[in-house]
Specification:
The chain is an alpha/beta fold and 306 residues long. The chain folds into 2 domains: 178 residues, FAD/NAD(P)-binding domain, CATH 3.50.50; 121 residues, 3-Layer(bba) Sandwich (FAD/NAD(P)-binding domain), CATH 3.50.50. The protein contains 7 helices and 19 strands. Strands 1, 2, 5, 6, 7, 8 and 19 form a 7-stranded mixed beta sheet that branches. It has a 5-stranded parallel beta sheet with strand order 10-17-11-12-13, with helices on one face. Helix 1 runs parallel beside helix 2. Bound molecules: NADP nicotinamide-adenine-dinucleotide phosphate. NADP nicotinamide-adenine-dinucleotide phosphate binds next to helix 5.
Length: 306
């Protein structure tokens, strides 16, 4: 029986791991499908307190992991496929084995959303991606586009100007959702052109299945156009990773876990932290704060049982 299992190694999971490890619980931390979470695929993080010049997302994550390991956190590459609240403890199926734990912190984060257009799955990796940091450097001196109007889309568009000859930012409305500083940075870059009121309707691929463009429809006039780009970067937000907990933990209509008091879910001993439960703030620092709170809540739960 484990004392504490933490699902996820983004900012929330790793901060929970640091606190739980320092409290001598030697938590088992599950890395899941996307180790390091969203920060591991981002570039410079400029708003995490304590780094006046900013810090690269992967470096920040690596530092947190080392810090948790130093205090005795144990890491395992495994994903939760089933979840069963049992009598006073929790059973989890990890890939092909069952484990039991007294407390569980779910910090499994959120994964990129896709547009849902035909041919989407087949095009991923052939000029369609959701990660500019991972794939931007493959598209040097060619035109590319980013779909979305939030901070992620603006950040990716600005990042891609390092490589691409031109970056189209495609947004379905006539104003961006992004914060002013991120929007200004993208819109003021000479390589970035914003295409307003533009809805992607089809991925255009060549005979080999490689991306050659994107079909767009003007949401005001209905007019269609074909935009020639070598890569489409989709940055339209994320979906919480709560699949194994459906029907067993309280969630909102979009699948975000509900916290009933502090980080407590509706099942005693199960706590939620970070983007898996936060549709409002979704920042690295708020996720870290929730990870800390979840570890403290779990610690109190354990001490009340003794
Ligand atoms: P977001 O804020 O939810 O924005 C998603 C964007 O995609 C919106 O502009 C939305 O359009 C558009 N969109 C959604 N579904 C679409 C569809 N099917 N077709 C076309 N467009 C679609 O997501 P995000 O940009 O990933 O940001 C998430 C959170 O992370 C935010 O809190 C943000 O502040 C934070 N973040 C912060 C930083 C930073 O500070 N360094 C960087 C990245 C993200 P509408 O506007 O019309 O809804």
């Amino acid at each position: 029986m484990e004392k504490m299992i933490i699902v996820g190694t983004g900012c929330a999971g790793l901060t929970a791991a640091i606190y739980a490890a320092r409290a001598n619980f030697a938590p088992l931390v599950l890395e899941g499908h996307e180790p390091g979470g969203q920060l591991s695929t981002t570039t410079l993080v400029e708003n995490f307190p304590g780094f006046p010049e900013g810090i690269d997302g992967p470096d920040l994550i690596m530092g947190m992991k080392k810090q948790a390991e130093r205090f005795g956190a144990r890491f395992e590459y495994a994903s939760v496929s089933e979840f069963e609240p049992a009598d006073g403890h929790i059973r989890l199926k990890l890939d092909d084995k069952w484990v039991e734990t007294e407390t569980l912190i779910i910090a499994s984060g959120a994964s990129a959303k896709w547009l849902g257009l035909p041919n989407e799955k087949a095009s991923v990796g052939h000029g369609l991606t959701s990660c500019a940091t991972c794939d931007g450097a493959f598209y040097r001196n060619v035109p590319v586009c980013v779909v979305g109007g939030g901070d992620s889309a603006c950040e990716e568009a600005t990042f891609l100007t390092r490589f691409a000859s031109k970056v189209y930012l495609i947004h379905r409305r006539d104003s961006l959702r992004a914060s002013k500083i991120m929007a200004d940075r993208a819109m003021n870059h000479p390589k970035v052109e914003v295409l307003w009121n533009s809805i992607p309707t089809e991925y255009l691929t060549d005979a080999e299945g490689e991306m050659r463009g994107l079909k767009l429809q003007d949401s005001v006039t209905g007019a269609e156009r074909e935009l020639e780009v070598k890569c489409v970067f989709v940055a339209i937000g994320h979906t919480p990773n709560t699949g194994p907990f459906k029907g067993k933990l309280d969630m909102d209509a979009d699948g975000y876990l509900l916290q009933h008091s502090g980080t407590h879910t509706n099942v005693p001993g199960v706590f939620a932290a970070g983007d898996v439960a936060d549709r409002t703030y979704r920042q690295a620092i708020t996720a870290a704060g929730q990870g800390c709170a979840a570890a403290l809540d779990a610690e109190r739960h354990l001490s009340h049982r003794v």
